[in-house]
Amino acid sequence: MNKHFFTSESVTEGHPDKMADQISDAILDAIIKEDPYARVACETLLTTGLIFIAGEITTDCYADIPAIARQVVKDIGYTNADFGFDYKTCSVITSIHEQSSDIAVGVGAKRKVIKNLGAGDQGIMIGYACSETKELMPMPILLAHKLAKKLSEARKKNILPYLRPDGKTQVTVEYIDDKPVRVDQVVVSAQHNPGIDHKKIEKDIIEKIIRPVCGRMLDSRTKYYINPTGIFVIGGPMGDTGLTGRKIIVDTYGGSAAHGGGCFSGKDPTKVDRSATYMARYIAKNIVAAELAERCEIQLSYAIGVNHPLSLKVTTFGTEKINPRHIEEMVKLSFDLSPSGIISHLNLLKPIYQKTACYGHFGREEKDFTWEKIDKAELLKKLSKKYI
After folding, report:
1. What are phi and psi of 387, to 5 degrees?
2. What backbone torsions phi and psi does residue 166 show, to the nearest 5 degrees?
3. Could you tell me the CA-to-CA distances from 278 to 131, 262, 282, 297 in Å, in that order?
4. pLDDT-based confidence at 109, cuts 50/70/90?
5. What residues pair up with 183 in beta bridges, in sequence order?
6. Looking at the DSSP assignment, which residues form a beta bridge with residue 171?
7. Is the CA virtual torsion 281, 287, 288, 289 positive or negative?
8. pLDDT in tens, 256-287
């Protein structure tokens, strides 16, 4: 019997890094809604009383960037100066210029032409799927995301009205022979109003947040760490600087798979950091859904201005039903891995990005998350018969 433990973390929408991601993607959505062919690379930094937005944007439309940023902060819940950050009184500074002409030439000189599009940058992109949950995601990151989302719901629905927007979650799962069998430890750090008794917070979060989410995976040995320092009043941008792209492991698989290195938020789909990572997840998920492997990791690589991937690697960790090299052949036959093919097949020229920016880009049942479909599984099963 092989036993091990694996841990993943998530954060709430009020965490400063996630605030930055959401602002960057809200700006992208506002622009791509009016100009689907816009080129956007937008970064956000937050600190006490300040939002700073910088980047490269080439578009025919107008976006009121300060107003967009303030609306995101308002929707998250920073509506009271007592929280240390307030959408009405914070300063918003912008520094935006057009995309570099050197990059534009490589990607495609005619901005509104998607056919034969070159990759927006070089790099490696990773996708992953596994059979341990119905979402084909690793259990630790899936539970951590659900806990973080439940914290925000409890705050917004006044189930736990003393909660404030910032928060973090962490889940340790025990595995036996690579199968998740129980939750060993749960950490929840939830920002709260001053003067709330720690014992009350601990009891409420275990009963109203953790038990509904983790359910049967909890047992008498599960250990709980709720606000381990005993107090969490100062949070959000007042407690910690926020920056776009600083939660890339939270955004993906919680450390269960490799990471390509690039972040997603604030980037239009010509940036393969984002679009090719979505395609890699789509491929991996369909391979696992087709029962060709129980675990699958896809690596793609690209060069700026080149309209095809430089490499494809399929890793199945010994769980494969057929040779991984044969799976690679099937992937090449079944998926268009050109930047333009990815954008077209996954329908990425739409304002769908802000909702990706919190609680993970993968493993969710959002109808616009086309990379979560398993519509290629039957084709892969059919193709696999020639190798069996």
Report:
1. -100, -5
2. -80, 150
3. 18, 12, 6, 13
4. very low
5. 173
6. 8, 186
7. positive
8. 999 998 999 999 999 999 999 999 999 999 99
